[in-house]
Design goal:
Layout (H helix, E strand, L loop, with lengths): L5 E6 L2 E6 L10 H16 L5 E6 L4 E3 L12 H20 L5 E5 L2 E3 L1 H8 L2 E5 L3 E3 L13 H9 L1 H10 L2 E3 H7 L4 E3 L4 H13 L3 H13 L7 H12 L3 H11 L10
Parallel strand pairs: 2-3, 3-5, 4-6, 5-7, 6-8, 7-10
Antiparallel strand pairs: 1-2, 8-9
Helix pairs in contact: 1-2, 2-3, 3-4, 4-5, 8-9
């Protein structure tokens, strides 16, 4: 697929996906969502890709929201379809990806941009980053999972304050809230993402995929996270990585995981 709105690059097991609409502060439109879905799908299917890093082009914005011009005249039905399709195609898709995804928040992450970052498994931010869900200032609410993932990450009270005030928080506040794991200078953001990615890649990709599934199930309605954990724990015993990991431990050597 020839991408118009994103850039992709894979090197040493790390796939970097860059949202490339700097003139629009990397705002998400329907085409960009479709391209991101495809890029994540391709990276996830590539056995050589162990970690995905998502970033915005330039120094101002990760993703400064959705492209409002696309849906300003939508009806109730079309609005619901927009949220439903977007959640399925991108946000839930990323959340449930078996390959770890690190969001490198390099500036504004607002509305759909923050929702996309929250769908990623790990979030780090540059010290100039600003985050928020301003949708109620437009007479609408977050529609790409923001009302669900934000309370999970920062708690109900803080989430409701952020949503109802439509305000922005800075990177340090986001770190204190637990919304991001680390805050660094912008020039150190990608190196930090790669450092975390390299730590992840030392471990079993099969086990990591099972861990993602187990963690996510604890937040899904009707799912018992403990039962999922038990099931995925048991399944781990049937993998080549388990045999290699335990053998390497007993032989006091570094494990060489094949992701099988």
């Amino acid at each position: 697929m020839n991408y118009q709105n994103i850039l992709t690059n894979t090197q040493d097991g790390i796939a970097r996906i860059t949202i490339n609409r700097p003139s629009k502060l990397n705002a998400l439109n329907i085409d960009t969502i479709a391209e991101l879905h495809d890029a994540f799908k391709v990276a996830n299917m590539d056995r050589n890709t162990k970690v995905i890093v998502l970033v915005g082009r330039g120094e101002k914005a990760f993703v400064a929201g959705a492209d409002i011009s696309e849906f300003a005249n939508f009806s109730e039905e079309k609005g619901q379809q927009l949220a439903e399709k977007g959640q399925k195609l991108l946000f839930d898709f990323v959340d449930n990806l078996s390959t770890p995804v690190i969001a490198a928040i390099n500036g504004f992450a607002l509305g759909g941009g923050l929702e996309l970052a929250m769908a990623c498994h790990i979030r780090i931010a540059s010290d100039n980053a600003k985050m928020g869900l301003p949708e109620v200032s437009l007479g609408v609410i977050p529609g790409y999972g923001g009302t669900q993932r934000l309370p999970q990450l920062v708690g109900k009270g803080r989430a409701l304050e952020m949503i109802m005030t439509a305000g922005m928080i800075d990177a340090e506040t986001a770190k204190n809230y637990g919304l991001v794991n680390h805050v660094v200078a912008q020039e150190a953001l990608i190196p930090l993402a790669e450092k975390i990615a390299n730590k992840i890649m030392r471990n079993s990709s099969v086990a990591i995929a099972k861990a993602i599934k187990a963690v996510n199930s604890g937040f899904e309605a009707g799912k018992n996270g403990y039962k999922t954990e038990v099931k995925q724990f048991g399944k781990s015993f049937g993998t080549s990585d388990f045999k290699e990991g335990t053998t390497a431990f007993l032989e006091k050597r570094t494990a060489q995981f094949l992701g099988e």
